[in-house]
Amino acid sequence: MNHILSNEHLEVKLTELGGTLSSIKDKNGIEYLWQGDAAYWSGTAPVLFPICGSIRNDKAESRQGMQMAMPRHGIVRKSEFIFEGIRDDAICFSITSNEETLKKFPYEFKLTTRYGLAGKSVNITYEVENTGDKDMPFFIGGHPGFNCPLVEDEDYNDCYVEFEKEETCTVPIPVTETGLIDMEHRTACLDHAKTMNLKHELFRKDAVIFDELQSRKIKLLSKKSKTGVELSFDDFPYIILWSSANDGPFVAIEPWVGLSTCSDESDVFEEKRNVQVVKPGEKKAYTFTITVL
Asked: Taking the domains of the chain in order of start, what are their residue ranges?
């Protein structure tokens, strides 16, 4: 079932399946959000929890020896959330742990997703609550895909990304066969640059994983029409750019708290980079914003 937020600038649709965005349109009818196409990628804007990316062989264990078994991007992105209504001018959905989730991730939780509309901005908050009796390690992330190009008569190569700050960085190499990350081998990506042109070749070997960015904002823009979106992501240390290897007409801009298991990491969940921990009865919230330009 779709739920709608709208104002004089945007109409935003949300769905209980995955508790997430399903459409962002402006007053001119331009659809910014990728609408899913199984020929390229059937997703739209999934919520990633309690992992972002993959764990080695889809398995890990806690320091206490509890076993986890989760597919790429976790256990909620294809689940039905409960519509909790509108609170503080935001539409809220939630999902709680159950018998099936506990088989994969042995912790009790409540995950609430909240979407608010202010002007041309959509504010997205993920709130993680520990409803169990032991400390819960986790990761959380967003995966919104955007149409690229956004308007007719433009091409993928007319699009580029612009960073908030001038960047010089390398990126680790994704291992396509496993979904993991090779941290021992990195490639140069940006050299005193604020922009990067989009081209399908960037995604032949999966994603571009930015783990060294200084910027907390990134824009997707058209050289011709100047249409685009901006993501601000202060609560997320990593940004992933991804599109399908078969020239998908979209790009996903993904704010993540954590990464796929890296080549220098063990299979102990709490030993992964930037692991988050929420204590029994505690909540932690993470927000990013999508602004139509």
From this structure: 2-292
User: What would the pLDDT profile of 118-153 be if each residue is shown by its tens digit?
Assistant: 999 999 999 999 999 999 999 999 999 999 999 988
- Its pTM stands at 0.97
Please compute the mean of the pLDDT values over residues 58-63 and round it to a whole number. Answer: 97
Tell me yes or no: is domain 2-292 CATH 3.20.20.70: no
Six token digits for residue 74: 């976790």
Contact between 220 and 243 under an 8 Å Cβ cutoff? The reply is no
Q: Are 70 and 45 in contact (CB under 8 A)?
A: no
pLDDT in tens, 157-207: 999 999 999 999 999 999 999 999 999 999 999 999 999 999 999 999 999
Locus of tokens 């509890």: 66
Tokens 């988050």 belong to which residue?
276
Indicate whether 17 pLDDT > 90.
yes
Bridge partners, 127 (sequence order): 112, 285
CA 179, 180, 185, 191 torsion-angle sign: positive
CB atoms within 10 A of CB 279: 12
